Amino acid sequence: QVQLVESGGGLVQAGGSLRLSCVASGRTFSSYVMGWFRQAPGKEREVVARMSWNGATTYYADSVKGRFTISREQSTVYLQMNSLKTEDTGVYYCHARSLYEYWGQGTQVTVSS
Question: Which of 18, 74, 86, 87 has the most CB within a 10 Å radius?
Fold first, then answer.
């Protein structure tokens, strides 16, 4: 059974930092693209960052470039978020995509002004 389990969300003031974690289990993910998406209230889900499992390629949304970093250590994918802004508020989802795709349950990030 494939599972993506996120943690690390919370409430933080603007300018602060959070690190999200996603533990992937249940299959081999070496051919997968791992990513973080977010969904703000009333908005569509959008990609924040993606990386190949081996880290050779990464992608960041323009809105987070220079502030967020995606990385992986063993079966855990991280999203380091620095210089957080109120517009970063939302539910953050871990995502894995190859022939199939999987989603985590989401973790809430709230950035206060």
Answer: 18
